Amino acid sequence: xxxxxxxxxxxxxxxxxxxxxxxxxxxxxxxxxxxxxxxxxxxxxxxxxx
Length: 50
What we know:
Number of helices: 2
Strand content: under 5%
Radius of gyration: 12 Å
Number of strands: 0
Largest sheet: none
Distance between the termini: 16 Å
Shape: flat
């Protein structure tokens, strides 16, 4: 459930926020949002899996 769970939760919650179903929070969209800490973590998790 590691990488797939992390990315699917972020993408699913972002989709639900854009549709107005859930409250808006500061969850970044995977690999596209501006910011350094979550992109570094996502790239670090992708490294060992590829």
